[in-house]
Amino acid sequence: MLPRLIASDLDGTLLRNDLSVSPRTRRALDAVRAAGIPVVPVTARQPHGVKLIGQQAGFAEWALCSNGALAVHLSTGEVLFESLLGVEAQTALVQALLERVPDVVAVSIREAGEGFYAQAGYAALAAERDHKRDPRHMTALPLTEVLSSPSLKLALRHPTLTPADLLAEVRGLGLDGFHATHSGAPFVEVAAEGITKAAGLARLCAELGVAQENVLAFGDAPNDAEMLAWAGHGVAMANAHAEALAAADEVTLSNEEDGVAAVLERLVGDDKS
């Protein structure tokens, strides 16, 4: 039986390493949409980052951004839901983390993904690829201002620690009130407690009347693991992190080999490899 909704991560999954949508993948996406199956990007990116590849992929309807914290319609701009990390929780986290790991810097993403409030020193560590924003145009705010309003997502990074190591430090604090993960980008991503791609996808599917067992999901990173486990059928890429591989029901080809397209072609009987 065909799924009723397809959910796909973007970077490292649907996109090739140069951040392009291959012609084969676009054909496969168009074929499943022609069969009446919506394809929802589920990503750590913000709406502007999805729109950068929207035309290539044919995305024009619902997207789940900021690791499931934001559901937005890409054409109308309608926000279906938005979950925010409160000031008290994010301040307690950052203060405790700085005592444990000095030199951490932060960015607060707000205003349905359009507001980007970077701490002084963050831009020096960033590349345009990280947030799909030119570091030269990033703010240089005091930490108190960065933390002064609730965040859709709080990004934390360190000049020398890897995201995995920094995430271990966050978890080692033993605090609650937030959910921390990483997506393969060079920073830790913090959202409100209970917010994951799986939680956001479950909420969107409830709004659209799609049952869990009728969802097909694709992913490659640790922040995809919950979604792959939640979906009726979860597919990890051959290039996936061990957490995503362990959560999946199936492993397809890598993102460089159009692994998403390979599965979608099988669904609609359209092998154009």
UniProtKB/TrEMBL annotation:
Does the keyword Transport belong to this entry?
no
The entry's keywords: Hydrolase
Please give the InterPro entries that the UniProt record associates with this protein. Cof, HAD-like_sf, HAD-SF_hydro_IIB, HAD_sf
Origin superkingdom: Bacteria
One matching Pfam family is Hydrolase_3
Any GO molecular function = hydrolase activity
Q: Does the keyword Hydrolase apply?
A: yes
Name used for this protein in its record: Hydrolase
Q: Which organism is it from?
A: Deinococcus piscis
